[in-house]
Amino acid sequence: MVEFVERNLLKEPLSVAELEALALRVGGIRELVKPTARAEVEALGEADVARFLAENPNSVRRPIIDTGGVVTLGFTPTVREQLGGGTAEAATTARRRQAARARKSTRQAPRGARTRR
User: Fold this and answer.
1) Under a CB-based contact definition with an 8 Å cutoff, are residues 32 and 15 in contact?
2) Phi, psi of 71 (to 5 degrees)
3) Residues 88 and 80 sit within 8 Å (Cβ to Cβ)
4) How many domains are there within the chain?
5) What's the pLDDT tens digit per position in 24-47?
6) Pseudo-torsion of CA 16, 17, 20, 21, nearest 10°?
7) What is the CATH number for 16?
8) Is residue 114 part of a domain?
């Protein structure tokens, strides 16, 4: 069994010190900003970004998974591959198939429905 610690970042936000320590491991503090919040921190300096994230935990990219050696951010196909959950290529193929099925189902009339001629 794998031991893990789960932390709800909205209820227990990361401190500025924790954010700065993570930033060193992931390539910079801006990597910790979720994509939809990047415009909000664009004009801020590094220290201000850390403070902003500590005060606005909903702007932190999640999930943050720390395996002890590697830290991954978000749950992209690449992250799933790094964690052993399949290849990024397989995830992309699955998304394409799902989108194609959705398009097909919206084009077909329900069974028994009358269509115009």
Assistant:
1) no
2) -115, 125
3) yes
4) 2
5) 999 999 999 999 999 999 999 999
6) -150
7) 3.40.30.10
8) no
Check if the beta carbon of residue 54 is closer than 8 Å to that of residue 16. yes
b/e burial code for range 46-80 (CB count within 10 A of at least 16 → b): eeebbebbbeebebbbbebeeeeeebbbeeebebb
Residue 26 burial by Cβ neighbours in a 10 Å radius (0-12, 13-18, 19+) = middle
pLDDT tens profile 75-97 = 777 777 766 765 556 556 666 77
Domain-embedded: residue 25:
yes
Q: What residues make up the domain containing 65?
A: 7-74
φ, ψ for residue 6, nearest 5 deg: -105, 135
Output the six-digit token pair for 33: 């900003």
